[in-house]
Amino acid sequence: MGRVWHPEHFVCFHCKEPFHGSSFMEKNGQPYCELHWHELFGQTCGKCNRAVVGQVIRAVGKSFHPNCLRCYGCDSALGGQGFYEWEGKCMDKKCFLKLPSDVRKKIETKRKEQIKAEKARAKAAGK
C-alpha cells in the first residue's frame, strides 16, 4: 500500500475495526479484514451467503461450502460425491432415479454434452 499507519488508524476499510496484528487483504490500496474482503470481493456461498474460504464446490453456476451443497430431494450433503443438476437444483443419485424416465434421459443427454464440451475446451487449451 506504500503508506505508514498509526496502529490505531490501521483498520478495515469496510468495518473500521483495527487489525491488532492479524492478517489483512488489500484491494485498490485499501486494507480489509479477511472476512470483509471475502464477502465483498471473494466467492459467496449459494446457500448461506457467507464467504467461501478454502474448499469450494461449484455447481449450478454458484459456489458452495462443502456442507452447504445439499440434495434438493432429501437434503443430504453432496460435497465430495457426484450429483445431478436439474432445473438449477442438485440431486443425489437416489433422488435422481425417482424422476420420470424421460426427464432422466434429458438430464443425462445434457450431462454428456457438457462433459464432451469440457473435454474439447481442455484439449483446445492444451494446444
Task: Describe the 3D structure.
The structure is a single chain. The protein is α+β, with helices and mostly antiparallel strands and 127 residues long. The chain is 30% helix and 14% strand. The strands form three sheets. Strands 1-2 form a two-stranded antiparallel ribbon. The chain has a two-stranded antiparallel ribbon with strand order 3-4. The chain starts with 24 loop residues before the first strand and ends with a helix. The relative contact order is 0.08.
Q: How do the strands and helices of this protein lay out in sequence?
A:
Elements: E1 25-27, E2 30-32, H1 34-41, E3 57-59, E4 62-64, E5 84-86, E6 89-91, H2 93-96, H3 101-126
Antiparallel strand pairs: 1-2, 3-4, 5-6
Distance between the termini: 39 Å
Mean pLDDT: 87
Kindly state the percentage of residues in helix: 25-40%
- The chain-level structural class is alpha+beta
- The best one-word shape is elongated
Output the number of helix runs.
Answer: 3
Strand and helix order: EEHEEEEHH
Which regions are unreliable across 5 or more consecutive residues at pLDDT < 50? Answer: none
Radius of gyration (Å): 21 Å
Which key phrases capture this entry?
about 130 residues, alpha+beta, two-stranded antiparallel sheet
